[in-house]
Write a structure and sequence with these properties.
Elements lengths: L1 H4 L11 H24 L12 H13 L7 H19 L5 H24 L2 H27 L19 E4 L2 E3 L7 H20 L6 H18 L2 H20 L4 H19 L2 H20 L2 H11 L2 H10 L12 H7 L5 H4 L2 H9 L1 H27 L4 H15 L5 H17 L14
Antiparallel strand pairs: 1-2
Helix pairs in contact: 2-3, 3-5, 4-5, 4-17, 5-19, 6-7, 6-8, 6-19, 7-8, 7-9, 7-18, 7-19, 8-9, 8-10, 8-11, 9-18, 11-12, 13-16, 16-17, 17-18, 18-19
Length: 442
């Protein structure tokens, strides 16, 4: 509660003040980049895709210069994979320097930034990010509802490419999936995924936020599910809830509170579902859920398909066609446009298969392996913290685990959330007994 009342993004005497300000600018640009591109500076829509790149470069440069971080196995792996893929793309692949450079940014700027955030931020900075996005949750939810009910030609639904097509994406019953302040629905889905893990964390730490704010955040989280018409938001909320249930199993003292929270939530859902303006969202979400589940073979098949994403098919294709892949950056939206290729959504929707298609068998599998190893390491560390009574890292992993494993690094917003949540998870592993500026989890 004390930090919420005296909320400062960065303390005046913080030795990492400038770097933390840079990280906060990165966070703000991540959330409002789409708003800049479609509402404020539409003529600069294309170059603004790269607006976070100079910030990431400066943060990494300063962190290395001041020896705040020491490149570890993962840092070097991301950098080396990126550089080798860059040369492979220009020599054996598509041959486009600009496309290869676009793909290289992910490996040498944003993924290494994970460890800068982890080193510079401490546990309290991690919680401040939670405060910040909880504050944003209410206006973001209101904007989502307005976009849901507004025609695609309205100002709130402007797209980054302009015209009357609108930024909404295919939904159901004549409604479109809204993008919020982002350029596309995936950004809004990731935002709600991140807020859900923080909302559940604050539910178990009621002293850190006023009760009415926690209650409002819970309502916004529930209401967001139907109005986004997004199964990803639904699945992510279920996953975070599952992680929260494990906390209850570890600490039975929370059971009474959990039962009360469940009853209040259940009653709230019944009340809200009877409101006409919410009924339309529920009907659209239900129709979208049923249509997608039928086309993908049910919920289980859908989840498995999204998890493994045609990895086996991609491996066999790479063996038969091109061991080194099509080249770095070629399977991004920018790469498709620049190279004049047709976007194969059956591949680009699934990160592991896209990775193999773009980087080839050797580098692609190695990159996937590095992501898996980092995910497992952070999960193990968060479990240790959970067993010691600290469940902030555990709840962050309820969102970060899937994003780190399968987040799309070719899509700038997805890459940004992957970088942010992984860096926050590392920072949350630091001791909560005192501020730790060493950059190493205790």
């Amino acid at each position: 509660m004390r930090l919420f009342v005296k909320f400062r993004l960065v303390e005046k005497k913080d030795p990492f003040k400038n770097l933390k300000i840079g990280i906060w600018i990165y966070i703000l640009l991540l959330i409002f980049e789409g708003a800049l591109r479609k509402w404020i500076f539409p003529s600069l829509s294309n170059p603004l895709i790269l607006v976070r790149d100079p910030i990431a470069f400066w943060l990494i440069y300063k962190a290395l210069q001041k020896k705040i971080i020491k490149p570890n196995f993962y840092f070097w792996s991301f950098t080396i994979i990126g550089l080798l893929s860059y040369f492979s793309a220009t020599i054996n692949g598509h041959g486009s320097q600009i496309v290869a450079l676009f793909g290289l940014r992910s490996f040498v700027l944003h993924l290494p930034l994970i460890f800068v955030i982890g080193a510079v931020f401490n546990r309290y900075d991690c919680i401040k990010v939670g405060y910040f996005i909880i504050i944003l949750l209410v206006p973001m939810s209101l904007l989502t509802i307005v976009q849901f009910y507004s025609p695609q030609t309205s100002f709130v639904n402007l797209s980054v490419v302009g015209g009357e097509e609108g930024a909404g994406f295919g939904g159901a019953l004549g409604f479109y999936r809204p993008p919020g302040t982002f350029s596309f629905i995936n950004g809004l889905s990731l935002f709600y995924g991140m807020t859900s893990c923080y909302v559940l964390y604050f539910l178990f730490n009621k002293s850190e936020l006023p009760k009415f704010i926690i209650g409002l955040a819970v309502v916004c989280t529930l209401v967001s599910i139907p109005f986004t018409i997004s199964r990803t938001v639904f699945y992510q909320t279920l996953l975070s809830t599952s992680f929260a249930l494990i906390i209850i199993l570890k600490k039975p003292a929370y059971l009474k509170f959990a039962i009360g929270a469940f009853l209040v939530t259940f009653i709230s859902m019944i009340f809200l579902s009877e409101q006409q303006f919410i009924k339309s969202g529920i009907e659209a979400f239900t129709a979208r859920f049923e249509d997608a589940s039928e086309s993908e073979g049910g919920v289980t098949s859908s989840i498995l398909g999204r998890t493994f994403g045609g990895l086996i098919d991609a491996i066999s294709t790479s063996v038969d066609r091109r061991f080194w892949g099509d080249g770095l950056g070629s399977w991004s939206s920018f790469g498709f446009k620049t190279l004049g290729k047709t976007n194969d959504i059956s591949v680009t929707d699934f990160e592991w298969s896209r990775t193999i298609e773009e980087l080839g068998l050797l580098l692609g599998l190695y990159f996937i392996l590095v992501r898996v190893l980092l995910s497992v390491q952070l999960l193990k560390q968060s479990i240790k913290k959970l067993n010691s009574g600290d469940f902030l890292p555990w709840m962050l992993m309820s969102f970060g685990l899937i994003v780190l494993l399968q987040g799309q690094i070719a899509q700038p917003t997805s890459l940004g959330f992957l970088t942010l949540i992984t860096g926050l998870t590392i920072s949350s592993l630091k001791s909560k007994s005192k501020l730790n500026y060493s950059g190493r989890p205790k």
